[in-house]
Write a structure and sequence with these properties.
Order of helices and strands: HHH
Radius of gyration: 38 Å
Helix content: 25-40%
Oligomer: single chain
Strand content: under 5%
Number of strands: 0
């Protein structure tokens, strides 16, 4: 036991301060924490003010009228067809072989020239 006490006495003399004692780090962290909370509150208030300045959503009678005909035109993908096989069996990746590796056919709507 005497050897252990001697080793501990050599490693940490009693005159070495273990902490600064002034609390500077605690004060700094407190100031940083207050600044972060102030930024969060300020961001919330700014967002609330911006949201209040926006016009309200339109009422049902102010909604735009529905168009008489379709405005979206469906375009087919030249890589695949929308048909499902008649036998109900979908192709697995190893059954595809060279499907999809060919060049695309030229677009009929835009003539070259």
């Amino acid at each position: 036991m005497d050897v252990l006490k001697a080793v501990n006495a050599v490693d940490a003399p009693a005159e070495v301060p273990l902490a600064d004692g002034t609390g500077a780090l605690g004060v700094f962290l407190g100031v940083v924490a207050v600044a972060v909370v102030a930024l969060l509150i300020g961001g919330f208030l700014l967002s609330k003010r911006k949201h209040d300045a926006e016009p309200p959503p339109p009422r049902p009678d102010e909604q735009p009228p529905k168009p008489e005909r379709r405005t979206h035109i469906e375009q087919t993908d030249p890589h695949s067809s929308d048909r499902f096989p008649e036998d109900g069996h979908a192709l697995s990746p190893y059954e595809l072989k060279d499907h999809g590796n060919g060049p695309l056919p030229p677009d009929e709507e835009q003539p070259r020239g």
